[in-house]
Amino acid sequence: MAKPTRNDVIRCYRQFLGREPESDAVVASHLKGVKDVWSLIEKFMNSHEYQARLRERFKKETPLNVPLTVKKPSAQPSAGRLRSQDVSAIEREVAFAIGQGNLRSIVQRFSWFHSIDLGQGVITEGRKSAEIVAQEAETLFRPVSLSGKSLLDIGAWNGAYSFEAKRRGAARVVAADSGNWHTGKMKGFEAFSVARAALQLDIEDFVLNIEHELPDNFGPFDIVLFSGVFYHLRNPLFGLANAARLARECLIVETHIETRDGLSMTFYPGRELAYDPSNWWGPTEAMMVALLRDNGFRQVDVSNALAQIDNRRIFHAWR
Ligand SMILES: C[S@@+](CC[C@H](N)C(=O)[O-])C[C@H]1O[C@@H](n2cnc3c(N)ncnc32)[C@H](O)[C@@H]1O
Predict the structure, then answer these.
(1) How far is the CA of 310 from the centre of ligand 1 (A)?
(2) Domain-embedded: residue 32
(3) Residues 177 and 125 in one domain
(4) Which ligand 1 atom sits closest to the C-alpha of 210?
(5) What confidence tier does 298 reach under pLDDT thresholds 50, 70, 90?
(6) Are 185 and 281 members of one domain?
(7) Which residues lie closer than 8 Å to 16 by C-beta, 6 or more apart?
(8) Residues spanned by the domain of 35
(9) How many Cβ atoms from other residues are within 10 Å of residue 194's Cβ?
(10) Cα atoms found within 13 Å of the Cα of residue 318, Cβ hemisphere only
(11) CB of 179 closer than 6 A to ligand 1?
(12) Would you say 134 and 163 are in contact if contact means Cβ atoms under 8 Å apart?
């Protein structure tokens, strides 16, 4: 992965500390001895200033005294496709903006998770940089033959991996999500629709809460991608079993893991994992392999999600 730049440092200041760096010299000092963007992000997340900001935001909570309402899941819309008038309106607006050379004005309305090159020199400024998306996509998809296959992307959010699967030859790609597609703040579905329209890729969308009973006549798919979702589930064994049922050939799981030996999962009742109340469970690597085998997969291959990050893994589970 490339070395971080001054712009990466400035973005970290804005995102994690909510302010501009004091001086150019301070920016330069952050670049010393940092080998990649992830290390830089980790450095900011571990900084006293960031931790103090988080404590200030969540000061009423302690891990042992979490108000019960904090982690209540919100009501979700029911499963199904979202091809609505709204999507057509977005598509028309994107086509018009592209015609005017003004795609950037639409992209700037959204908060992005994936950095995606939409053409016309516009790259969405996501929390996951374009380099990280590219590196992860390579680890997720390299071992899988996508040509002519169907793929379901559970928890697609902005859709970077759905788009990549289509580019790599998948015949049918369904991007599915629930939470972030519908919270007013994230506007995840609108952002996904803008990217899909700008890239002009034939990707289906589907509202799917993987912790609910699966809708009738949905799937199976040759390949199911389950990236960054497992640890967000309150009932991860039910969610994983659903994802497994949908996978005919290979289930690809990317997840946070607890880096210790043995078969166990850590429960996070509050904000213990990255101060994020939407994180619930952290399996060990061995636990995830055992769960996948228990769901009927004959072989499970494990890779590091990102070379420099120790607590994320990608599991390719084969029928
Ligand atoms: C950390 S993001 C991962 C996004 C993308 N898959 C990636 O790996 O970059 C987690 C995504 O999973 C979605 N998600 C969380 N719980 C879900 C559920 N029960 N069913 C479907 N999607 C869910 C969230 O809305 C969010 O878009």
Answers:
(1) 21
(2) yes
(3) yes
(4) 20
(5) very high
(6) yes
(7) 41, 44, 45, 47, 50, 53
(8) 6-61
(9) 27
(10) 7
(11) yes
(12) no
Is pTM beyond 0.85? Reply is no
Q: 137 and 306 in contact (C-beta within 8 Å)?
A: no
Atom of ligand 1 nearest to the CA of 153: 6
> What was the pLDDT predicted at 83?
58
C-beta of 155 in contact with ligand 1 (< 6 A): yes
Q: Is 73 in the pocket of ligand 1 (CB under 6 A)?
A: no
- Asked if residue 28 and residue 175 are part of one domain, the reply reads no
Q: Are residues 24 and 168 in the same domain?
A: no
Ligand 1 pocket: which of 177, 187, 313 to mutate (most atoms <8 Å of CB)? 177
Q: Does the C-beta of 208 come closer than 6 Å to ligand 1?
A: yes
Domain count, the chain: 2
Q: Is 284 close to ligand 1, i.e. is its CB under 6 Å away? A: no
3-state secondary structure of 192: helix
Residue 69 Cα to ligand 1 middle (Å): 21
* Ligand 1 touching residue 137 (CB < 6 A): no
Give domain status of residue 276, yes or no: yes
Question: Does residue 80 lie within any of the structural domains?
Answer: no
Say if residue 72's pLDDT is above 60: no
Dihedral sign for Cα 182, 199, 203, 214, please: negative
Residues 16 and 142 in one domain: no
